[in-house]
Amino acid sequence: MRAIFQNPAKPMSDTNPKPRWQALDSDLNRISRVETANTHVARPMLAPGIALAFMALAGLTAAVLFGQADGNYIVVAAAAFGAYMAINIGANDVANNMGPAVGANALTMGGAILIAAIAESAGALLAGGDVVSTISKGIIDPASVQNSDVFIWAMMAALISSAMWVNLATWLGAPVSTTHSVVGGVMGAGVAAAGLSAVSWGTMSAIAASWVISPVLGGVVAAGFLALIKVKIQYQDDKIAAARKWVPILVAVMAGAFATYLSVKGLKRIVNVDLEMALLIGLGAGLLAWSVTVPWVRRKSEGLENRTRSLKTLFGLPLVISATFLSFAHGANDVANAVGPLAAIVHAAEFGDFATKVSIPLWVMIIGAFGISFGLFLFGPKLIRMVGSQITKLNPMRAFCVALSAAITVIVASWLGLPVSSTHIAVGAVFGVGFYREWHSDRRRKQTNSQREMPRRLAPEEYRRRKLVRRSHFMTIVAAWIVTVPAAATMSAAIYWMLTAFV
What we know:
Elements (H helix, E strand, L loop, with lengths): L23 H43 L5 H21 L2 H9 L5 H19 L3 E3 L14 H25 L5 H17 L6 H34 L4 H28 L8 H26 L7 H44 L5 E3 L2 H29 L5 H21 L5 H29 L9 H6 L5 H32 L1
Antiparallel strand pairs: 1-2
């Protein structure tokens, strides 16, 4: 201890060599730096470690519930991979709902994750479907997989392959459709188990068409609402007065759309309503929202300056509410992507046969709900930033158009009987907003040039620099959408052959 507190400025004799520790405060500082470095080295492994622990807990839960029953090990493995799929859905799919709100600075990353985790879990547990289709979307002929063992291994291969593909897409930073991933997995396993004749190619053609229909519809609707906001509010001489008139109308449309959306897609367990009744529910919700929003907007807009920046405060709260509703509906609707194959395996292992539709046990639904929340918390920020800020710049008005487009497009597609992907719709809406801004900016520049005596010409480099949508992300995401079904199908077929070869 004497050497530690020795004055470092005092020279030491040769017979008394310089001690390794000179002063307690500086040495502790060095130790803390080493500990901080170790923390940063270990941090990248924390999230995968928690994810593996959750998968192990899911498998342990299945082992306890099934005990020594036949097929116990299959159910345990399926539960672990079901948890893996749910984690990946949370990491990838939820970004579509919360990304625009975070990119528009209406929510912080932490606030978005907290709201989404609660809403997704509530949607899955309160409004998730009682039954789920085991042959996803009717793409496989049930007669081709009558053998229960073949069916179990086909579902296991579909579950593993779809989870792996969504995981890879998340790592690449590409938001993909988890529904299409499961469809591809089921198709690939069905082909491997029973040949090409087992696939309903008409259904697959409709799903392939949705690759184009979903993003185009989402983009057109979002761009249309953004154009409406610009014409009716942003370009008016008295922006505040225009906002007091139009913001309640837009919020009413949003409330009606979400009420209809939740009635059609998210309330199957509570009550089953047809589209006509859902539209009436939406009309009532829209009128109620309008009556509440009118005084709120009037109070919120008092004292605001007559400029576009002031309008953003009027769209912040409606944007947060819309993102919450989207997350609730997503949890209610898409949790089946995680637990559908798992529920099918549990049913087949328990009863020795399979049905085209099976009930979802509560413990299976809990795995799906909590897995989505864990995936969002551990791995979601990467895709949230991608959708919210790296494709194009969003503000509350643009992000509101994205959320509104997502709800309306799903309703229109359900009415027309079109198979669409909520992921493609939401991301397509972001692209639609960005491309509309590019077109509108270029149009205004041309109008300004036409009024000048000497029009200003932009160099090609400057023109490319003014693009408002990042083309690299656009190409990456579109490519990921195109290859999702064939990639998941190929992986699923390979995994099915490996599983049946070694078992």
